Each structure stands twice: as C-alpha cells, then as structure tokens.
Inverse folding.
C-alpha cells in the first residue's frame, strides 16, 4: 500500500484524529501496518489489496476515493510549500483518482497545485502526464483561461525534456486561446518560452524577434519579474551571437532584479554569467561563481537549478584540468539529468568528458565521447550544440593526424555555424589553417 498519515486516514474512515491514531496503534501492534517515518505509516501490500477488494464488494470504494480526493483538495489549499513537497506522491495519486471519478474541479485544482512541485523536483514526465489529463478536462468544461495556463506549463515541461516540437505545439495553442481571453500575461509568457526554444534550436534571428516582442509586452504590463526573465534569455541570445559585452550586461541586470524577489531566478542569471566567463576564458572566476551558485542552489529544493550549477562546475573543472572534481561533478549531474529526462544535458556531459579526455591526451576516448554527444544532438536537432561538438572532434582528429575526418567535421561545422552566427567560427577557421599546415607537412614528407 501507499504510505499514509493519520491526517489522511481519519477523513477516509470518517473519524476524528484521536480515534484514527488509536486505530493505527492497534493495527501496528498486530503488525498489520508498519511505521515508515515519524508521521507516515504503510499497510502491507497484500492487506491493502484485500481491503480494496472488500471496499469494492461492499460498494464503498467510490466513496472512499471521493473522500480522499476531497481531503487532498482541502489540504492543499491550507498547506505550505514544504509540506506539499514532502507529500507530492499522495497528490499524484489523488489526481489519478479524480480523473477516474471525473471530478473535474478537484482534478484541475490538484494539478495546478502540484505542477510547481514537479518542476522543482525535475519530475517533468509526471508533469506532462498530469497536464495531459488536466488540459483534456478543461476542454470538457470549456475553461479557456485555465486551459491556456496549463498549456503554458505543458510547453515548459516539454522544453525541459528537449521535446521542442511538442513544446511549440502546446505554446502555439496557448497563444491562440490567449487571443480570446482577458489574460495578456499568459500571452507574453508563452512568447518568452517560444523565444527560448528558438535559442535552443539555434535560430537567433527568430529568438531576438520573439524576445523583443515579449519584452515590449512585459513593459506594457509593468511586469518587472517578467522583464528580468526576458533579460536573462537575452543574455543567452547575446552570448550565442558572440556579443559578450551585452550578454554580461543583461545577465548582471537580471541578477540585480531577481536578487530582491526570487533566489532561484537569481541563481539562473548567475549561471548565465558563469557561462559567459567560461567562454571568455576566465576559468577561475567562472569556477568561483559556479561554486557560489551551487551552494545557493543546494539551499533550494529546485533540482533543475542544482543540475545546471553542477554542470557548469563540471565545465570549469574540465577547463582547469581538475579531473577528479570533473568526474565527481559529472556523475552527480548525470544522475539528475537522467531523472529529469534532460537528453540535451546528457549530450553536454559527454562533450565535457570528451574535452577532459583530450586534455589528458586520451584522444581515442575523447573522440568516442564526442561521437556519443553528436548522436544525441543530431537526434534532438540541436544544431548549435552539434557545431560545438564537431569542432571538439576535429581537434582530436587533428591531434591523431586523421585529416580526412577532421576535414569532414570542420566543413559541416563551418556550413552550419555561418547560418547560426556561431561563437566558434573563428576557431573553425583556425583549425582549417592547422589542417592545411599538417597537409603541407605530410605532403613534404611524402615528397622527400
């Protein structure tokens, strides 16, 4: 059976808390329930199944599930975030029961409550399952306002799992509905996520257009937090086109605005600044900033921001050739990214371990890791990241004098990189020059 508390069991049995506590003590004395924590108990699975069968036979099963759902709905309205975080499994079970019972109001209320918890814990697959049910429910009830909000969160969950096609579908539906409801906030929020997708897919022109449009709408709404979120994404955009001065300006501005209102958002902006310093080859400063971000992230219950902080600490450790720390960070963040279903970041980890292997002179291992990253990025159509990986491969191919493979990587990287205004275009040209010199040297040796 599922773990339960006295507070959950009492309304199901329709008794007061004191009677429920005495009843549980009696069951525990007979070894029919066991204590899991100070507050949670668990019934043996076989006994739980028998009790369920008996309640179905006696016609009480629907009544008990209805009471459970109603209890969860009433309790979530009063509970604080920390309590909900500890009890998300019970809420997810209540969503399933509400769906079976066609308890539409209760289902949507529970999903709206649990979505922030799912996001903070990186449970994006569960979020998408729950949102699928909830959106279908709002279609039945014709609640367009709630439907638009749920579609927005559904799109965001898809982005976190690198499912950009599904994300765009949900966000476009959100925008369509937002045209017919009095909610300009949700429209501008959807534009922000579409801009983020454009960045992820390497379409910097579309990204700038969407982000500027979003920024204008946020300014009309006087939404200071929203404006700061746009600037955080503009920092990514400026970084991707190689405008590091603007990227730093946007990131620092966002940090300043977020510092007063939202620590998690502030950490995200700190991580943008960390990425910038890495590309500016300020590795010590970047490492210090990543460790500071990681310490602050560990004080939150937000898995995605912890994962990002660990990943950037990994990047810095690799650049500083601290292999033991790099391996430790890689193992920790890989576990989190796997749990979250964040395939793109799994590709990033392969890429960084490729860099580490190359730094240690292990070029066959570096190439193998890079090929694994390439496979992931090709499957996700992540062109910007693919260019970065091809450049990494080319370096190792040049080190091993495999000029034909290096040429193939650099040619594709150049072709894709020009269209994306990729930050590594100068490095690609430099590697072409190195390749040319190696060819001349090889030709001279052959002639001799």
């Amino acid at each position: 059976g599922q773990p339960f508390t006295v507070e959950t069991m009492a309304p199901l049995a329709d008794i007061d808390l004191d009677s429920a506590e005495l009843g549980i003590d009696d069951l525990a004395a007979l070894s029919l329930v066991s204590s899991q924590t100070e507050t949670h108990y668990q019934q043996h699975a076989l006994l739980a199944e028998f009790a369920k069968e008996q309640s179905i036979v006696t016609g009480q099963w629907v009544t008990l599930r209805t009471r459970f759902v109603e209890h969860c709905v009433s309790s979530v309205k009063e509970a604080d975030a920390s309590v909900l975080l500890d009890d998300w499994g019970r809420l997810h079970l209540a969503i399933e029961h509400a769906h079976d019972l066609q308890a539409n109001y209760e289902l949507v209320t529970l999903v709206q409550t649990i979505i922030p918890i799912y996001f903070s814990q990186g449970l994006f697959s569960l979020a998408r399952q729950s949102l699928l049910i909830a959106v279908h429910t709002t279609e039945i009830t014709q609640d367009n306002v709630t439907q638009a909000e749920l579609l927005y969160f559904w799109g965001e969950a898809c982005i976190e799992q690198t499912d950009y096609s599904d994300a765009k579908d949900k966000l476009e539906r959100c925008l369509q509905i937002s045209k017919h409801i009095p909610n300009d906030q949700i429209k501008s929020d959807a534009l922000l996520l579409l801009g983020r997708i454009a960045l992820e897919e390497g379409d910097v022109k579309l990204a700038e257009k969407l982000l500027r449009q979003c920024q204008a709408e946020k300014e009309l709404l006087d939404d200071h937090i929203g404006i700061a979120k746009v600037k955080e994404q503009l920092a990514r955009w400026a970084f991707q086109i190689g405008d590091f001065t603007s990227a730093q300006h946007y990131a620092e501005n966002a940090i300043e605005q977020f510092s007063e209102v939202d620590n998690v958002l502030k950490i995200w902006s700190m991580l943008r600044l960390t990425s910038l310093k890495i590309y500016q080859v300020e590795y010590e400063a970047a490492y210090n900033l990543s460790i500071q971000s990681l310490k602050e992230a560990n004080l939150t219950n937000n898995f995605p921001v912890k994962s990002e902080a660990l990943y950037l600490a990994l990047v810095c450790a690799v650049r500083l050739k601290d292999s033991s720390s790099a391996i430790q960070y890689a193992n920790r963040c890989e576990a989190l990214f796997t749990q979250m279903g964040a395939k793109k970041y799994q590709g990033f980890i392969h890429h960084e371990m490729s860099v580490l292997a190359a730094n240690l002179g292990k070029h066959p291992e570096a190439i193998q890791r890079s090929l694994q990253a390439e496979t992931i990025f090709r499957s996700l159509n992540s062109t910007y990241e693919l260019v970065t990986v091809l450049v990494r491969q080319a370096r190792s191919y040049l080190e091993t004098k495999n000029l034909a493979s290096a040429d193939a990587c650099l040619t594709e990287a150049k072709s894709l990189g020009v269209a994306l205004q990729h930050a590594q275009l100068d490095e690609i040209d430099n590697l072409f020059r190195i390749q040319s010199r190696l060819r001349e040297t090889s030709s001279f040796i052959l002639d001799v």
